[in-house]
Amino acid sequence: MISFRSSFILFCAWLNLAPFTDVVAQHLDLSKNPWPAIRKMRLQKLLPEAMQRAKVEAWAVICRENNNDPLAAHVGGENARGAAAFLFTLKNGRLESLALSPSGEATALKDAGLHDRVIVLGRGSNLWETLAQTLRETNPQKIALNSSNLSVADGLSYTQRLVLEKALGAELTARLVPSEELVVEWLSVKLPEEVEILRQAAALTVQLELEAYKTIVPDKTKDSDVARFLKKRIAELGVEDAWAPEQNPNVSPVLIAAIPTPPRK
Question: CB–CB of 241/2 below 8 Å?
């Protein structure tokens, strides 16, 4: 019911739930959103291991405005406007990350400190040729691309793929593989910090369900009444839905009156 993927709201302080474990406190400032630190740890610690298990030496993620890659927020591309590329290469067990970004977003990417290098694409620069040249220099044997049957690993459009293959040429294009196995290997493993947050999210979900049960009057309460109650409580607590808000709870939105969201604390 509750999602902490994008913002990881620190609701434990607000709701007097169990405190974070010591390991979380060591890595995270509890007064701030922990997602940036967790994302960085996931890239540095878990991605190299996932790439080794998937037997790929490079992973390229293309991000852009209005039709972004499903994993954009996981690699730092959630604010992409013009097309940007995020390239991860594995050499001798060490991950190197590179962002190829238009100048408008490059400064913010540098400030975030998520990537080893940020290359600024000036006006008139060709993202695809720059990415292709970088891959020629690093010379990976297998290049994972978000173009597969798995929706979360299928962010590259058909036209983008055609342009990329043209820039890569036949030799590098032959090294492209779907990123599906890599993405599954990476996302399926959670850091201890994430596990703790998931535990607390589950505890909060149980709490809200018990609150909702107490409002039910037999032969009177409708599904939409329960849905409205839960929507109101989620808004009051300042947390987020785990999936599409109009389907959480799974009651037709037509039956649920709009509930104004109170200001965040």
Answer: yes
Give the closest residue to 141 by CA, choosing from 53, 50, 57, 59.
Answer: 57
Class (C level, CATH) for 57-178: alpha beta
Please state whether the predicted TM-score (pTM) of the whole model is above 0.90.
Answer: no
**Where in the chain are all domains bearing CATH 3.40.350.10?**
57-178
* Tens-digit pLDDT profile for residues 44-91: 999 999 999 999 999 999 999 999 999 999 999 999 998 999 999 999
74 backbone φψ class: left, alpha, beta (φ>0; ψ -120 to 50) = alpha
Half-sphere exposure for 24 (CA within 13 Å, toward CB): 23
> Following DSSP, what letter does each residue of 11-61 receive, concatenated?
THHHHT-PPPPHHHHHH--TTS-SHHHHHHHIIIIIHHHHHHHHT-SEEEE
96-147 pLDDT, tens digit per residue, is 999 999 998 999 999 999 999 999 998 889 999 999 999 999 999 999 999 9
Pairing of strands 143-145, 58-63: parallel
Contact indicator for 2, 205 with CB cutoff of 8 Å: yes
| DSSP-derived secondary structure letter, 94 | E
**Distance (Å, whole) CA 177 – CA 131:** 16
